[in-house]
Write a structure and sequence with these properties.
This protein is 5% helix and 41% strand. The protein has one helix at residues 2-7; strands at 10-16, 29-34, 37-44, 47-52, 66-67, 72-74, 81-83, 99-105, 108-114. The protein has one domain (2-114): 3-layer Sandwich (Rieske Iron-sulfur Protein). By secondary structure, it is mainly β. The strands form 2 sheets. The chain has a 6-stranded antiparallel β-sheet with strand order 1-9-8-4-3-2, with no helix packed on it. Bound molecules: FE2/S2 (inorganic) cluster. FE2/S2 (inorganic) cluster (FES) binds at residues 55, 57-58, 60, 75, 77-78, 80. FE2/S2 (inorganic) cluster binds next to loops.
Length: 119
């Protein structure tokens, strides 16, 4: 994943004026508008991460899930766990949560979408 970040190209979208504008729920998960959809954002160990709003298993709202101590997103419905960095499911084969890059810049909070992929 780390190496992918260097050779992949991203389109960047400014989704907030800054990280202070991001509202997090009691589980520490927020949502931002990315084009016409919402995605989740979370700050885990001082690093921002972004991932799809809907669970790839059966579509539950991951904004209602939680982040465990290992940095996995835990779905609120069947408790599947997804690695916050690469979206790989830790408990079942064949499921991968879409993740996005995040950059906090002086002029805003940005989400990076891999070039060639839709939002
Ligand atoms: S809907 Fe998320 S694990 Fe089933």
């Amino acid at each position: 994943m780390i190496f992918e970040m260097f050779w992949k190209k991203y389109n960047w979208y400014r989704v907030a004026a800054g990280e202070g504008e991001i509202r997090l729920n009691a589980s520490g998960i927020g949502t931002v508008e990315l084009g016409d959809k919402k995605i989740c954002v979370v700050r885990f160990r001082d690093v921002w991460h972004a991932f799809a709003l809907y669970c790839p298993h059966a579509g539950a709202l991951l904004s209602e899930g939680r982040i465990d101590e290992g940095g996995n997103i835990v779905c609120p419905v069947h408790a599947y766990k997804y690695n916050i960095r690469n979206g790989l499911c830790r408990v079942a084969d064949g499921y991968r949560l879409r993740t996005y890059r995040v950059e906090v810049r002086t002029d805003g909070f940005y989400i990076g979408v891999e070039e060639g992929r839709g939002l």
